[in-house]
Design goal:
four-stranded antiparallel β-sheet; elongated; 779 residues; alpha+beta; 10 strands
Length: 779
């Protein structure tokens, strides 16, 4: 069935078509209203990655990726004052009542897990540093201070070296944590225990996600403001209510369909994905504007009957419209090949949204236009926008239809591609800056992160598992010595702030038993000696007090590592150092296994993105080639549109590289959708040239016709969306949204320039047969 028959069918049955669209919109709208807007941490974890398997297997003992760190910092003096110690104690107790908390992973100076070990002629003493009660007298406080300084597990790790700060760490069960509840509960607790002269700083994945959720009302306000601005720009540039309302209605209906369908599958919407919805909505607005302009052109050409004009419009724009949407949806579908649930959900939502536009935009808009009564719709706003666009399009035409100037455009495009390609190769995999790239550097969260890292080894943690082949292997001297050497080795790496392991529990006991002689700050000479040291250290302990270091069979243990940031380079360098050590220092009867905790999860994400990045781009370009070749029945067409896509992608990746915007789970969907975004405009320009050339045989006139029709739609869409999304930069408290707004604006600008200058110049210079055929081309 050809385009004319398809168009005729839908226009003939326009009433049933619109009734079905309305009914489906109501049904899907009911489901869309119930969609959950939240973050699920497990969505971040790549399926089947060995680091994720390690984290899942050992996180209950050694700590997961949802660790929260609270710093208690005095403005003057030290923390060893009763009111300050009480703040620490109250935090320790209060955290037990937070939803989803792992009560065995709340560790602080006031926890039972941190102990003081002493030896005397009367025997051995191992008791909690500050549990269950606070020191009663100044003498008790002074003794606590001395005990803290004497304990290497505590001093520097839970109490700062200058004694001005202490930290409380708490972990959560991944399957129980509800970020929407945890964040306000922790904030309320901090408010209850806060006293004058003491600063409380808190960081961690649950806090970060809680902030994002807290900013959701602000995000919705920005969405409303930007939508209003889009409507205003459409009204000013098009001048008609139809030109303003139809694009917005099309974007809204297709969005309702997509969200309604995914809600049926139980898929949630991540708060950070709101920016991507604008990028997808831009496709609906783009196609709607093109259909509106083409319909007006048909009426101006003398087609009096609006149904005939709508049928002709749909016939002519069906191929470029479907090709553009197929390319966009295909690019999003490619993202689903990356085995990260968050990306797969984003790909599902994006693909359904774009697929829905086939009905809600390509079919619906002409059907509605078929009822248009007036030959020329009344303009309610006229500020001369047409004159400005006409002037710009005439300049583009003058360049593209002059062989010398057109060749110059192509040479310039190649030069830009080479320069941008050079910088694009430096795009960063993973986070590129300390703190959270989602928030601005001056945000309270990032300032808190910097402050804690200034006083402690690091807020981001990873555990390296030591897996033994038999029980009690972690009491063997050669295993413990290997772990100790590893700790010294890895702490020499600038990426790692500090480490802890079961060896740190044994060495101080050995030294204490030898009257504090530092020569004996070492592992015991045999398994029995180490077992005795552990028995002394754990005397009076509750089960699980050293679970963060070793299991109860002493078969599997962990080296806990603190990182001062989670930049992609930091993680890769540290992991490579660990692999190098493991290769050079094998353990008889045990082996090291990477990697758990937040750093382990992020390492897995970065490795998956790195391995799939080129594959995804290559598949998206291959899909573009196949779709174009099939649509135009020419392999030449498949190759023709690739340069503009590569150009827009190279420029955008260069921008990301130069501005240190990392390629991660949040930015990857935007980058993938840009594959299709870079070519949509070009399809309309090329098809209009093909259509007009078939009638006139004049390439110059055909290029001018395409620019004055489809080119006008390119300007309208680009101007509308660029002006709108840039506002994210000025309004949003979330840095990610601001940067993605600029990224989308850049992508649209480059794509528009390519469609208005590069594509017409390529057609004029190379005269592709799939557009103009084999016959002689008139000037």
């Amino acid at each position: 069935m050809n385009a004319g028959k398809i168009a005729g069918f839908f226009i003939r049955w326009r009433i049933p078509v619109l009734v079905v669209i309305a009914i489906l919109t109501l049904v899907f709208g009911w489901f869309a209203a119930q969609i959950e807007v939240n973050t699920i941490f497990t969505d971040l974890q790549p399926s089947g990655h060995p680091y994720i398997e390690t984290n899942q297997e050992y996180k209950e003992n050694f700590g997961g990726a949802n660790l929260v760190t609270i710093m208690v910092k005095v403005e003057e003096g030290t923390i060893f004052r009763r009111p300050v110690l009480q703040v620490i104690r109250d935090l320790q107790r209060g955290l037990q009542y937070i939803d989803g908390v792992n009560q065995f992973q709340i560790i602080s100076l006031a926890s039972k897990k941190l102990k003081y070990v002493a030896a005397s002629t009367e025997g051995f003493l191992a008791e909690p540093l500050m549990w269950p009660d606070l020191p009663a007298t100044q003498q008790d406080i002074d003794r606590l201070r001395q005990n803290v300084i004497a304990n290497p597990v505590v001093y520097g790790n839970y109490v700062s070296l200058d004694l001005s700060a202490a930290i409380v760490t708490v972990d959560f069960f991944d399957h129980l944590i509800d970020y929407e509840k945890v964040y306000p509960q922790i904030q309320d607790l901090l408010g209850e225990v806060r006293i004058p002269g003491v600063e409380l700083k808190v960081v961690g994945q649950p806090i970060l996600v809680g902030i994002i959720i807290e900013k959701l009302p602000e995000t919705l306000k920005i969405v409303i403001i930007i939508t209003a601005i889009i409507a205003l720009i459409l009204l000013v540039t098009k001048g008609t209510l139809r030109g303003m309302i139809l694009p917005l209605v099309s974007a809204a209906i297709s969005g309702v369909w997509a969200l309604g369908i995914v809600q049926l599958f139980g898929v949630n919407l991540d708060p950070l994905g709101v920016v991507i919805t604008f990028l997808i909505s831009a496709r609906a607005i783009s196609h709607s504007v093109q259909l509106n302009l083409a319909f007006d052109k048909e009426r101006e050409a003398g087609i009096e009957n609006s149904r005939d004009a709508a049928r002709s419009t749909l016939t002519k724009l069906l191929r470029p419209g479907l090709l553009g949407l197929a390319t966009d949806a295909g690019a999003m579908a490619v993202v689903a090949l990356t085995p990260i649930p968050l990306l797969q959900k984003a790909a599902l939502i994006g693909s359904l949204w774009l697929g829905g536009m086939v009905i809600c935009t390509i079919i619906m808009i002409p059907a509605i236009l078929s009822w248009s009564r007036s030959h020329h719709e009344h303009r309610i706003v006229n500020i001369g926008a047409d004159r400005g666009m006409n002037w710009l399009l005439e300049r583009c035409n003058a360049v593209a239809t002059h062989r010398g100037k057109a060749s110059g455009v192509l040479v310039l495009a190649v030069a830009v591609l080479m320069v941008a390609g050079y910088f694009a190769t430096g795009v960063y995999i993973g986070d590129s800056k300390p703190g959270s790239p989602i928030l601005w550097p001056e945000s309270e969260y990032n300032r808190a992160n910097a402050a804690i890292n200034e006083h402690f080894p690091g807020t981001d943690r990873m555990f390296l598992v030591v897996e033994g082949e038999e029980d009690d292997i972690l009491k063997q001297p050669h295993v413990l010595e290997n772990i100790s050497r590893f700790q010294q080795y890895i702490e020499a790496q600038p990426e790692v702030g500090g480490t802890q392991s079961i060896a740190d529990v044994i060495r101080p006991v050995n030294m204490i038993l030898h009257e504090g002689n530092p020569r004996y700050f070492r592992i015991g000479h045999d398994r029995i000696a180490n077992a005795e040291f552990l028995y002394i250290a754990m005397a009076g302990s509750d089960p699980g007090d050293i679970d963060r270091f070793v299991d109860y069979k002493y078969r599997n243990g962990a080296v806990q590592m603190n990182f001062r940031d989670h930049k992609g380079g930091t993680i890769r360098t540290a992991l490579q150092a660990i692999r190098d050590y493991e290769t050079d220092n094998p353990i008889d009867g045990a082996n090291y296994r990477l990697a758990g905790g937040l750093i382990g999860v992020l390492a897995a994400v970065n490795e998956v993105i790195f391995s799939s990045q080129l594959q995804s781009i290559a598949l998206a370009l291959l899909l573009l080639f196949i779709l174009c070749a099939v649509a135009y029945r020419s392999t030449q067409a498949g190759l023709f549109f690739l340069p503009t896509v590569v150009l827009s992608n190279a420029v955008t990746f260069a921008y990301m590289s130069l501005n240190e915007i990392g390629l991660n789970v949040n930015t990857l969907p935007v980058a993938a959708l840009g594959i299709g975004l870079g070519v949509d405009y070009s399809f309309y320009i090329a098809d209009r040239i093909k259509e007009h050339f078939a009638k006139t045989g004049s390439l110059s006139e055909s290029i001018r016709f395409a620019l004055m029709t489809a080119g006008r739609g390119v300007i309208l869409t680009a101007l509308t969306m660029v002006a709108a999304v840039v506002l994210w930069f000025f309004f949003s408290s979330l840095r990610f949204q601001a940067e993605m707004g600029l990224l989308i604006a850049l992508w649209m600008t480059v794509s528009a320039i390519s469609a208005l200058l590069v594509i017409p110049s390529m057609i004029y210079v190379f005269r592709p047969r799939f557009l103009i055929g084999k016959r002689h081309v008139g000037a």
